[in-house]
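Re: the pair you flagged

First of the two:
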Amino acid sequence: MPASATATVVINAEPSAVWPFLSDQARFLAWMTFIPGMPAPAGSIFQPHPGGTLLVKFPNGGQAKGKVLDLDPARRLVFTWGYDPDVAKTGLGPGATRVEMVLESTSEGARVTLTHGGPMSDKLAHEHAAGWRHHLSQLAVQSAMEFHQSRLADALAAYFRAFSEPDAAKRDALLASCSEDAVHLRTAFACTDGRADLSAHIANGLKHMPGCTLAQNGMVNHIHGVARVPWKVASPEGKMIFKGENIVRFSPAGKIAEIVGFQG
């Protein structure tokens, strides 16, 4: 009897940043992998047009085969799916089942809902749901990484510059360029909510620690739009006074939404 598997993921990125991973061969195959960060085995194919070939080679020697049925730009991808060789003995030949992926915008980012249906038992559908959840997690990693990587450096540079800007209008402009209006800051020195509150906190710091500077202090690591950012505060003479690390969460629009700072 027909059965179906459903898996959903919400990605910290705009839908326009996720769609290329459903419509470009290299990006599509980047998340069709079992090992994070590793490409799909050589010889895999995704032709992003109706009638296009889908061939995904697996490390165990199996192959998924199907055809692209439909691409509705920035909204939906539909393809068939089956196996040859059928190493796992699913009984699903090439193109025997149908997979639909729907892309939607939410306040938390891009939601992708995958539905896989066809002549499967409930047990086989359940097993496929687990596999698709893995692949969707890789889709989330890859698309959010590409989206935020292109924005992260500029956003952090503007944030750190704002902490040394005494002119309120210029400081507010820097913060507007890099952070959400409702940005939250939690550190040993601050508990602010909103961009205006953050700007006032910076002004107070400049008043009581004149000439001191806050700057990035090493490499940034990020995943899913969340970054670990090392920082330091230096005296006017350049001597380090404090150092620590911020956990920075970026919004689906690529702006800073929340910062939690750790000192030491």
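Second of the two:
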Amino acid sequence: MGNTRSTSRSKRHVSDGEASKNKKKTGLAHAKDTSGRVTVQDVISVLIYCMVAVIIVSLLRIFVIGLYVVPSGSMETSLNIGDHIVTNRLAKPVLKLKRGDVVVFKDPANWLNSENVFASNDLVKRLIGLPGDTVACKGNGAPVTVNGVPIDESSYLKAGVKPSNFAFKMKVTPGNVFVLGDNRANSADSRYHTDDGNHGLVPLDRIKGVAILIYMPTSRFGPVHAHHDVFAKVGGASHT
């Protein structure tokens, strides 16, 4: 009797132990299956993250930055042919434009002659005169003057290029700016469009942004320099 009970108890003990082991194995297998399974909720979460990322990038492109490729040499060597640049779209509506800023703007009055054209009717030049400024030059190597103050543009003019081969003088009217290319010998800028109906000036509402960075090619990676210091001695715009 004693042996029989002992044996029965042992069998039950063994059976219970095996069942417990089986449950553990089943639990582990179940856990592995669950951890490796892609659920509908996982897919929805990934799609939501992707949509949010796309929306953020789109908003940045629309309101904060612009991307352009430079196809001509009118801004050499500050910007070379093939440079990919980033512009700050907030510069005009939020920040104040400054003399020296390299600005991207929509063609103001049919300036385009396959010169400095981006994917659309956009151009890029350096802002020299603000509303109220008088920008002038006597030509033949003489410096450009802003409100009568000569400026030294050697830090950004293409080597060997004169500030202007010919004389000009322009009073910048309200709501406009005066722009020049850094490669003056190959830049159809404000000097060349005095008969365009707006005296070669660019309306502020045509400016799309200020160039801030060259991101391609990698050998050219770096900031687009505004050289604001060149205009440090120029006083406030003259309204006389």
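Residues 2-36 form the longest helix (35 residues).

-B.
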